[in-house]
Amino acid sequence: MSKSETAVRLQQDVVAAMKAKDKERLGVLRMLQAALKQVEVDERRELEEADVVKILGSYARKVKDQVKSYGEGGRADLLAAAENELVLVATYLPVELDDAELETIVRAAAEECGAAGMADMGKVMKAALPQVAGRADGGRVSALVKKILAG
User: Fold this and answer.
1) How much is the pTM?
2) Cβ atoms of 59 and 89 closer than 8 Å
3) What structural domains and CATH numbers belong to the chain?
């Protein structure tokens, strides 16, 4: 497996969950490991920390969608399991930026690009997203960029 700190921590947690006979936690951890391994095999390269964070973030978004669907569908049994899974995945992701930090980054990106209006949204997004990678959802960034460029 890759040498990223997060991947190493994930491997250690798998071993700990196996020793503790925590089947639910072990199942989630193994799914995370499988997602990382799949990308390693597909791309035939060792993953770096940024890659691991991106993959785990994508996995977390998928689980968030499941939580939403299970909630709307009235599936309390599946909802609880998905929420627990989301909490576990979140422990491997960087802390999300709060609104003030995100706004500071987006405003700096807009100034850097010389953005004058909505036509420059793509430029601002291109400048801002690498700075917030893994720490803010793209939808959140997009909404803030629109707000700043419109106002």
Assistant:
1) 0.79
2) yes
3) 5-90 (1.10.1510.10), 99-150 (1.10.10.410)
